[in-house]
């Protein structure tokens, strides 16, 4: 039944040429999209999400079957604007979280294990005291955000996550769309993140931002999943 709803909605939207949901397929550097899967790790999950019944899988790091060895590492400047293309577009209501993790060596060799992930950006819903709830990324074909100026130079995984909430009122049925780029940061301020988490580990299927109802009553608050956006040491 749940997948019926999802596929029914999808079926209507597939008239736009979508195949099944969407992927984050290309890194955007200084306003320019790079090639699909050039700097973003390819994976074996096609356009499908990971559902919130699977919050302990290591696939939550960079998606199912994503490995770095086929992927190049993009030079980027701390403090610059980067992003991800959405292929073809976001057509669920949900929120965005972006994390980074410093690789001990090359980003291409890093599996994202350890207490290493820090949040750098988020897009919560727009609320107004229970009158309405709006998701500004609906229909988005790209998501852009600033890299922190304060971070240390080095190679990182840059992970975007879209958490679709249209079925989040069913336990385990919120949907995570995930992509990881490999980046080599220069020009940074040398700071270390003050708040890091492990992925998996940061999320649970019953978190208030993951198991919740966006429809009735219209929420007056929304608790973003995971840690707050990190600060950096001087
Ligand atoms: C990575 O490259 C290998 C060798 O070309 C290929 O067999 C494999 O399917 C690729 N994996 C992904 C996830 O693209
Ligand atoms: C991406 O991975 C899929 C699934 O393994 C594979 O079919 C496809 O050829 C890969 N694309 C690239 C550009 O590596
Ligand atoms: C997610 O959980 C379901 C039910 O336990 C399981 O069948 C499926 O293989 C899991 N998927 C992943 C990617 O872990
Ligand atoms: C998304 O795009 C469709 C088709 O252009 C449009 O009908 C719909 O109103 C848009 N939704 C939002 C929330 O912008
Ligand atoms: Cu869906």
Automatic annotation (TrEMBL):
UniProt subcellular location: Secreted
EC number: 1.14.99.56
GO biological process: one example: cellulose catabolic process
Auxiliary Activity family 9 catalytic domain: residues covered: 21-217
Signal peptide (from-to): 1-20
Top-tier EC class: oxidoreductase
Cross-referenced CDD domains: LPMO_AA9
Gene3D superfamilies, per the entry: 2.70.50.70
UniProt keyword annotations, A-Z: Carbohydrate metabolism, Cellulose degradation, Copper, Disulfide bond, Hydrolase, Metal-binding, Monooxygenase, Oxidoreductase, Polysaccharide degradation, Secreted, Signal
Keyword set includes Metal-binding: yes
GO CC terms, sorted: extracellular region
Catalytic function, reaction form: [(1->4)-beta-D-glucosyl]n+m + reduced acceptor + O2 = 4-dehydro-beta-D-glucosyl-[(1->4)-beta-D-glucosyl]n-1 + [(1->4)-beta-D-glucosyl]m + acceptor + H2O
Gene Ontology molecular function: any one: hydrolase activity
Cofactor(s) required, per the database record: Cu(2+)
InterPro entries per record: AA9, AA9_LPMO
Record-stated family: Belongs to the polysaccharide monooxygenase AA9 family.
Protein name as catalogued: lytic cellulose monooxygenase (C4-dehydrogenating)
Protein's organism: Serendipita vermifera MAFF 305830
Organism lineage: Eukaryota, Fungi, Dikarya, Basidiomycota, Agaricomycotina
């Amino acid at each position: 039944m749940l997948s019926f709803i999802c596929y029914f909605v999808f079926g209507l939207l597939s008239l736009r040429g979508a195949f099944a949901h969407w992927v984050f397929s290309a890194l955007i550097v200084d306003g320019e999209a790079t090639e699909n899967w050039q700097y973003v790790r390819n994976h074996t999950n096609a356009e499908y999400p990971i559902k919130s019944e699977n919050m302990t899988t290591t696939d939550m790091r960079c998606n199912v079957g994503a490995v770095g060895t086929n992927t190049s590492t993009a030079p980027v400047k701390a403090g610059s604007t980067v992003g991800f293309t959405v292929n073809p577009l976001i057509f669920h209501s949900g929120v965005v979280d972006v994390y980074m993790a410093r690789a001990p060596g090359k980003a291409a060799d890093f599996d994202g294990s350890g207490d290493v992930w820090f949040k750098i950006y988020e897009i919560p819903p727009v609320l107004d005291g229970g009158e309405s709830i709006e998701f500004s990324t609906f229909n988005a074909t790209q998501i852009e955000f600033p890299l922190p100026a304060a971070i240390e130079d080095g190679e990182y995984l840059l992970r975007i996550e879209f958490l679709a909430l249209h079925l989040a009122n069913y336990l385990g049925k919120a949907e995570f769309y995930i992509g990881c780029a490999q980046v080599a940061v220069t020009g940074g301020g040398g700071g270390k993140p003050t708040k890091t988490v492990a992925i998996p580990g940061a999320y649970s299927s019953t978190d208030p931002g993951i198991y919740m109802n966006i429809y009735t009553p219209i929420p007056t608050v929304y608790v973003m999943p995971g840690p707050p956006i990190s600060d950096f040491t001087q």
